[in-house]
Amino acid sequence: MQSRWKIEKGRAIYYGLRNKEHLFQNEIKISERQKAILLSLPKELGKREKAVLGKRLLGVAAVEEKDFRPVPKSLSDARFCSSCAANDFMIPGLEFDAEGRCPVCQCRKETEGLRSLVPVMNDFPHAMNSRFDVAVFYTGGKDSTYLLYYLSKVKGLRVLALTWEIPFMSKSAFLSIEGAKRSFPKVEFLSRRVNDEDLRKIYRKLYELAENTCACPSLAYVLFYPELVNLRVPYFVAGNEPAQILGLYFNHMAPKMAYRFASNKPLNFLINLGRVLTLHPPFKPGQFQSLMTMKQLAYGDNPFKNLAGYRNDLVSNVVTALQEVPSLLAPLKRAIRSSSWSGHIPAFVQVDFDAISEGHYDWHEVMGFLEKEAGYVLPKSAEKGLHTSCQIERCKEYSQFIRFYEMRSRMIPFSALEMAIASSGRNLSREDAVREIEGELGFSLQEVKECALMKGYIEK
Questions:
Q1: How do residues 102-115 score in pLDDT, each as one tens digit?
Q2: CATH number of the domain at 134-354, please?
Q3: What is the DSSP string of 109-174?
């Protein structure tokens, strides 16, 4: 069998990222006869066996020895994309076209318009019935600091900055938050911290499910949504830069239609018709997305999404882990009910980072700018540009990578996709991306040292 193909429950499953023409064709239903032949490999196949496998499997899951692609065991053995930093070590099973381009680069033109899963807003009105115009989930990282700068300094809005204090906040993030408080005196900062006993219950369950404790930003939404409803904040602004948003598409977690949902007028009309008929106020742009996000965290995934084959394991794992502390969800559920009836739902919207950066959100250029203008403190390593606010980020990257590498999870490591997308879209040069992958990220077959920090906390 070709590497990265695995037989599971009557299907041949591919663990990788295929070329554009077969991008999401990672499952092939197989008969018992086909399964028996695949399990008998390697061997010379006869005409009858080749006929049984057919075109869907022959030359795809079952290949000649000369066409077998071994899985690299290190970055030094990897094949890199000719246009970006993607490679078949950090994304094992990555395919390349005749020009040596990865699927991310092959699909650049087709994915240019996939900007956000929520409505895009770069300008905001002043609120009439709230002390705040917008709220931001603020981590002290480069992206949320840039968003804070844009909303407060450039647009002159009344901003509520929300920080979930995690046990693993990096020193640079902590110092950046203090710097932001000095740089943005008109911004109101609000922080919340889950007590250690409850947080360890959630983290232990997360570790059992995913071998890491990453719960950002979902747990922050749980903590702050009731506050946003009580304060009647009209907009909650996401601080995700372009590579993070597009990564969901390549990870088969969001179809193209999800990126176009906010602008689909007939569909939004039908949703609002249902609201009116049930005596609920119609949704304003972004309110449906906000309410659905919070309902997912409080009550679990919509079964129709799972049936359609789109599943976000990161969020699903957090939802399961939250059940370990039901009291944490009670205020969220009350806020969902009250806001749905009253219509005072903070709209979940996205600022287009490329658009507000003269068409090009350059990671390193932005960090240098924020250091001067926003009290931002650079991470310890000058090479670090991705996810700078957390000490255990490399542990998350390692656990996602090793689970995918060993074909125990179908989720492609998020950071791997983000580095490919960022360097393909020129938010980061290919050379800088390769240096960061080699020196700063957790793509390793050996457990990274940061895992000890995470384990030390949950084992207390």
A1: 999 999 999 988 98
A2: 3.40.50
A3: HHHTT---SS-B-S--PPPSSSS-SEEEE--SSHHHHHHHHIIIIIS---EEEEEE--TTB-HHHH
